[in-house]
Amino acid sequence: MSDQLLVTHCAPTLAGLKTANLFTCCSCSLPVQKMIDQWNRTLNSKGVFVYLARNHSGRALIYVYRKSRLEKDLSSPNVRTFLNVCGYHCTDIPEMLAQLSHRLENNCEFPHEIGVFLGYPISDVIGFIKNKGRNCKCVGCWKVYTDEVAAQRLFDQYKHCTDIYCQKLAQGFSILRLTVAA
Questions:
Q1: Cβ 18 vs Cβ 72: under 8 Å
Q2: Within a domain: residue 34?
Q3: How far apart are CA 30 and CA 44, in angstroms?
Q4: Is 178 within a domain?
Q5: Number of folded domains in the chain?
Q6: Domain assignment present for 181
């Protein structure tokens, strides 16, 4: 794994525009936990944390998040109610991430509540679940069921950010320099 992988998949989170990103990578020949530990040593001081959400069959699912934004997102009354219905009865971020990881590892169905952990609008997460992924207004970083104009604006902003961050990394900027402090 390299910083290129992190920037390619997580630039909006590194830039402070998004709560979190999620990506998969091969864990067969890579020291995944070693790289995660290195990223955490580098990025935690800026409020960004990297978490191994799942490691199964040679594929690692890496969750990169801004702790302060995640705490704010998950404390919203609508999100709390939704997560309680999904079985998340704790409020501590590490416990919630551990429960999410457990659900990723052990459930037959993908836990679609992960959308709220990624900062997606609760109305779109609920819309996705109710519609079983069909009948959305548009698709970008997530399937949109409510405000497609606002969502498209965000999708464009995330793409532009990723393009700039990839260019800056190629120019020699470090991952630390590219990460905005919380």
A1: no
A2: yes
A3: 22
A4: no
A5: 1
A6: no
The domain in which residue 152 lies consists of 3-173
Q: Where residue 117 falls among pLDDT bands split at 50, 70, 90?
A: very high
Report d(CA 168, CA 180) in Å as an integer: 14
CA–CA gap between residue 119 and residue 158 (Å, rounded): 13
Structure tokens at 130: 């109710």
Contact between 113 and 122 under an 8 Å Cβ cutoff? The reply is no
Residue 106 maps to a domain: yes
Q: What is the pTM of this model?
A: 0.96
DSSP state of 65: E
Confidence of residue 129 (pLDDT cuts 50, 70, 90): very high
Residue-wise pLDDT tens digits, 49-107: 999 999 988 899 999 999 999 999 999 999 999 999 999 998 899 999 999 999 999 88
Distance CA 98, CA 53 (A): 8
CA distance 60 to 80: 28
